[in-house]
Design a protein that fits this description.
mainly alpha, 3 helical TM bundles of succinate and fumarate reductases, 4 helices
Length: 128
């Protein structure tokens, strides 16, 4: 029986934006799945009546609740931008190394901008 090749130790790899964006895409996908439970909780509280809704809003608007919401928004913005990048790859665009690096940086910048706009609107009084 032939021995299968072993992957090199993680210390051998050099950091690359494309590697980081792939890892963060998986992490944000998981975070969005968990975060959707929070959305379901809020919707169920809204359907249950004013007391349950007020209680849910108290939890969500606490310091910790706002931190969780901010994390959800950041995960959403990043996953959205990187998902668009992956769709372009599926169409055969942007697969060259230089273009992949450039699109990785673009995804990070766009996600930060989108998340900042949403969070400033939501917590800065625009959503009130």
């Amino acid at each position: 029986m032939r021995e299968r090749p072993l992957s090199p130790h993680l210390g051998v790899y050099r950091f690359a934006y494309t590697m980081a964006t792939s890892i963060f895409h998986r992490i944000t996908g998981g975070a969005l799945s968990v975060g959707l439970l929070l959305l379901v909780y809020w919707l169920m509280a809204a359907a249950d009546g004013p007391e349950a809704y007020d209680s849910a809003m108290e939890v969500l608007m606490s310091g910790f609740g706002k931190l969780v919401i901010a994390g959800f928004v950041i995960a959403f913005a990043y996953h959205l931008c990187n998902g668009i990048r992956h769709l372009n790859w599926d169409l055969g665009r942007g697969l060259e190394r230089a273009e992949a690096r450039r699109s990785a940086r673009t995804v990070i910048v766009a996600a930060i901008l989108i998340a900042a706009i949403i969070l400033l609107w939501a917590f800065g009084g625009g959503a009130a």
